[in-house]
Amino acid sequence: MKNKDQITKTLRELIELLDIPPSYYDKAVARYKSMADHFHRPQSAIRHLDPLVHPQGSFRLGTVTRPIFPDEGYDLDLVCRVLANKENLTQKDLKELIGEEVISYSKAQGFKQPPKEKRRCWTQQYQDDVNFHMDVLPGIPAGERYRQLLLEARVDKRQVDEAINITDKEESNYAQISPDWPRSNPRGFALWFEERMDVGGHATSSRKILLESKSYGSTDKIPAYALKTPLQRVVQLLKRHRDQMFKDDPDGKPISIILTTLAARAYQGEADIAEAIAGVLSRMGDFVSASKPRIPNPVDPTEDFTDRWDATKENNFWNWLRQAREAFAYLGRATTEAELIEACKNDFRLTLSSDAARKVLGSAVGAPSIVGVTKVSDSAPSSWAP
Predict the structure, then answer these.
(1) What residues form DSSP beta bridges with 136?
(2) For the segment 289-317, what is each residue's pLDDT rounded down to a tens digit?
(3) Is the pLDDT of residue 156 over 60?
(4) Mean pLDDT along residues 171-197
(5) What CA–CA distances, in Å, run from 358 to 241, 367, 385?
(6) Three-class DSSP category at 300
(7) What's the pLDDT band for 386 if we cut at 50, 70, 90?
């Protein structure tokens, strides 16, 4: 790969700028553990249901990035799973039951704003030195029919065991006893993503290093965010480019679960971040099917992550992929400080210092481009060959 040294150095500098400090993850962990403790207090209305509070999304996967605008804050997505079943309660019952405890927690913590009920979850906003938007999604263990469906679809049993049913106010049977509840599996998805992180053995290697450094006492104590594998870094970089590209149209941007899923499927174990980003961008479009499901959930093949795509949103995805390929390619072609700094600002909204730019360019000025960019149509995948 031509000019790999320059783009690798540049990407490392960008990751340093967009990554969040470990203390932010620590605060997120402290917050959801605090909520879990509240749900288990003697007076809790759900204590007898053994509530389990755990993160989902980017905090669980270790792919959080700093927001484009400082006042945006961070989305801390949580699940509160309780041991109940659909035979004696409705989605509405569960939503309100957990909602009462979320409201109680908010009051006990002295939050200025009360939680708000959303379509599927309860949202609490709070801010100390970090601004969090905390979404709490109620759930119960998946019913046997759903589990059997997943097993028949050849989903790994460990992932199936994590499947849940959730609440949704827009469901016609929301207030009725019914076996048909919306489905989800964030913990199963995290297990699948961690398997993809370890293609090439990079997650295993990171865990070994962390154990040898005595940073953690055992493997099961090591959170995903501490591993910092190439796949996690790729997802962070792709999300940052997407956020900058759609900063004026956040509702039109490709959703994170699509970028994360396609990147994970396209990743082939590359250790170098430049090779990983080039490989993922060249292949991820190949995992968008022409027929439904266009982008199936890897832990629930019946779910299509593109279920809300219309012509505009699909075009937005292909346009983003084309521009991402061009943006990352240009990082390998820049030959001056000004060009490199401007590219980082325009495509990633990150301020690369002059010293950092000089360090990157020191051994690469005048070198040929890392990639040859192939134009991508608005509706079909194409290759990005290194």
Answers:
(1) 78, 122
(2) 999 999 999 999 999 999 999 999 999 99
(3) yes
(4) 96
(5) 23, 14, 27
(6) strand
(7) very low
Task: Round to whole Å and give the CA distance between 368 and 208.
Answer: 37
Residues 314, 353: Cα–Cα separation, whole Å: 36
Burial of 129 (0-12, 13-18, 19+ CB in 10 A): exposed
Q: Is the full-model pTM beyond 0.70?
A: yes
54-63, 110-119, 135-144, 365-374: which range is least confident on average? 365-374
CA 213/CA 161 separation, integer angstroms: 33
What is the Cα–Cα distance from 359 to 115, expressed in whole angstroms? 47
Total count of residues recorded for the chain: 386
Q: What average pLDDT score do residues 280-294 get? A: 97
- What would the two tokens of residue 67 be? 């927001």
Q: How many helices (H) and strands (E) does the chain have?
A: 14, 9
Transcribe 183-222 into DSSP letters. EE-HHHHHHHHHHHHTTTSHHHHHHHHHHHTTSSSSGGG-
Terminal CA-to-CA distance of the chain, rounded, Å?
Answer: 6
Average pLDDT over residues 206-225: 90
Q: Where are the domains of the chain?
A: 4-361
Strand positions, DSSP E, the chain? 52-56, 74-81, 116-117, 122-127, 131-141, 164-166, 183-184, 296-297, 300-304
- Angstrom distance (rounded) from CA 334 to CA 6: 9
Residue 227: closest CA among 370, 19, 83, 34: 19
Q: Which of 96, 88, 176 is nearest to 136 (CA)?
A: 96
Provide the Cα torsion 82, 83, 88, 90; round to 10°: 30
Q: How distant, in Å, are the alpha carbons of 41, 330, 342 from that of 368?
A: 63, 11, 19
Do the Cβ atoms of 61 and 224 come closer than 8 Å? Answer: yes
The amino acid at 30: A
Q: Has residue 372 got a pLDDT over 60?
A: no
Mean pLDDT calculated for residue range 162-186: 96
